């Protein structure tokens, strides 16, 4: 990738892949910035992340980066975030279905979608958010395909958080 391609690309997946493959040492040293980037991508799509556990987890992830909370607190917040994602993935009983229907009804970008399609959209956003909040703790790192190949990554936010130089 050239500097001009980086500066004008609208494909964050390609940008991330190129950076990872062409500048692995740089990429490997950007864990904190990549973590902030992923969280920023979540907030960009916050309408698809209405769950309190996930939102609290994303806020906690920023606090963790800033060393305001420790690993134990981040892991506690992740437990609730993961529960929100699991509800969307595995919740089949009437109470779970009613809760998911309420989330869909309160999410304007999902209006008009069939239940299964809207649920899948919320589920993808939930797992992206949950993974983003604990990105530095995921193994094998630093490349986590489920995050960096997600439809939720944004090229403009990537440029805000990373400033590599291409020769």
What does the model show?
By secondary structure, this protein is mainly alpha-helical. Helix content is 67%, strand content 0%. The protein has ten helices and no strands. α4 packs antiparallel against α10, α5 runs antiparallel to α6 and α5 runs parallel beside α8. The longest helix has 20 residues. The radius of gyration is 17 Å and the shape is globular. The termini are close together. 32% of the residues are buried. The model has no long low-confidence stretch (mean pLDDT 96).
List keywords for this structure.
10 helices, 167 residues, mainly alpha
Q: Could you give the topology of this structure?
A:
Blueprint lengths: L2 H6 L3 H11 L1 H5 L2 H14 L7 H14 L5 H20 L3 H12 L9 H19 L11 H4 L6 H7 L6
Helix pairs in contact: 4-5, 4-8, 4-10, 5-6, 5-8, 6-8
Question: Can you summarize this structure?
Answer:
This protein is mainly alpha-helical and 167 residues long.
- The rough form would be described as globular
| Category by helix and strand content | mainly alpha
| Unreliably modeled segments | none
Strand content: under 5%
**Topology as H/E string?**
HHHHHHHHHH
Q: What is the rounded distance between the termini?
A: 9 Å
Number of helices: 10
Helix content: 55-70%
Main β-sheet: number of strands, strand sense, barrel status? Answer: none
**Annotation, overall tally of beta strands:** 0
Q: What integer value in Å does the Rg equal?
A: 17 Å
Mean pLDDT across all residues, rounded? 96
